[in-house]
Amino acid sequence: MAAVKYIPREKLPEWLKALAAQSRVLVPVEEGGSVVFRQYDPARAPVFGSDATAPPKGAVFPASQELFSYAYGKAGEENAPTLKLDPKTEATPTVVFGSKPCGARGFLIFDRVYMGKKFPDPYYIAAREATVFVTMACATVENTCFCHWVGSGPADAAGSDVLLTPVEGGYTVEAVSEKGAKFLDNPALTDGAAKAAEAEAVKKASREALGEAPDIATSPAALLSLFDDMEFWRDQSDKCVSCGACTYLCPTCYCFSITDEGTGTAGRRMRSWDACMHFQFTLEASGHNPRPTKAHRLKNRVGHKFSYYPTLHDGLIACCGCGRCVKSCPVSVDIREIVQNAVAKAKG
Amino acid sequence: MTDPFNPYLPEVATILETVQETHNIKTFRVRFDDEAKMKAFKFEPGQVGQLSAPGIGESTFVINSPPTRMDYLQFSVMRAGEVTAKLHTLTAGDKVGVRAPLGNAFPVADMKGKDIVFVGGGIGMAPLRTLFLYMLDNRADFGKIRLLYGARSPLDMAFSAELPEWTGRSDIETTLTIDREAEGWEHKVGLIPNVLLEMAPKPENCVAITCGPPIMIKFTLEALKKLGFADEQIVTTLEKRMKCGIGICGRCNIGTSYVCVDGPVYTYAQLKQLPNEL
Q: Is B135 found in the same domain as B94?
């Protein structure tokens, strides 16, 4: 691994401008009382201190994207019949700058599904390969943070290409991947050997601030054993208003819908984020719905993240512990409590 | 560099012919416009495809023609929602998008040399038709073949043009039934599970394959158990709301099993291993 570098805080704009000359650079900025990722604008100061309200999920997986456009003519009409399909899989080179480790780690969960052997997703792969994550380790933690429960932590570099750590006066800069190493070649970055120990101390302190993680290793079997216990799930989901904010803000929620947009003769097929918390998600044309109540749906959301996904993917929990679903839930549904309740209840 | 395979991009296909099976079931016979792709197309009985009605969307249907008859791919569509309503307006010459094959197939290899009982209800006959015709085209590979096909009324019975052949063949035994008496009906009257009990197929060296509406499946499973069929000897094929069809979009899973890739075909033994979320 390359040596640690250092950048003083006042030099950050210089580096960001250099990056923005070559790529789309997304940084967390304040907007309408929230912190969201937007294209870098030197006139707007990025917010690196607190975690962004919404993760940089859209950088690789846009909330809505065109799969292909179509032009259609029905038999018997002028210039008909025709069906022409034109797919667009190209991606824009992008740097996600200043996400917390949890925001970048979310894509590790996507990768297993979207980069599978049988049906690799060309749209996702193009965007993933075109994106570099310059991630900011956490110097402070919040009471909704639980990344240490799921095998991550406040300085977790998994899924990132470069790791910054806040130190007095600036940030240490470490290359995590080969892709990331290329981004350190900028005159604003100097040797950071003298700051390395301080950075390690920051990482250690924030990890210690999180405290002990409860043992949730049995969550896959525990959740499965409670599948038919609808009383348990009604209890857990009682407050839920099915708004879907948890899925919208989740760095690992990767479900989507496919819809057609346009007229009968021309338009496009879109892929858009979808939410398993909505009644319509599994509603069949016959009227039958395998997940008819919010209890069924919350069971699927928690079950997918802490049981089905880890069972299918070598124990990897499909949650990065960012706590956005906890923080932004309008009625304080807390996935940490649900998992712990399930583990405890299954123990009997 | 050639573009990587795009699993979301349908093949453009032309409707060669349609058959109005019942008041709400229409059959479409289609061929890919790309002849090379059509000739290279391979699938197994039980696999499904997504039909696109451009501007409206896509839905999943079983390919109900067998791989032994590749003049066209056949889909039978029951009108239920927006996509199916749009598909019902299409006629010969119209274009559709087809993404296929998707999903798993009936365990045909395990069925060779065995007696077979098909139990189909309503539109549930479509997936059975594929395997049934495949078996007829490979008749020597299988033992006794029996088909029990039921619908609410004679007018609700799809594939009516083929029924005289199916009932007339001496190397198979076809039983048709409807729920209530109807004028001119010469076959059985009675609910499928009851007729199945009357037929009383023996479970020894036999596989039962069933598909139909949930309530019919429930009582058919009970009847098969009563007749002594083991869970491993009962095969069914499921339906779920699907979007991607490739195991990603997240709505058709039953616990860890994604119906679009791990299914739609399951043995009753496999279903019992899954959480209860049909």
A: no
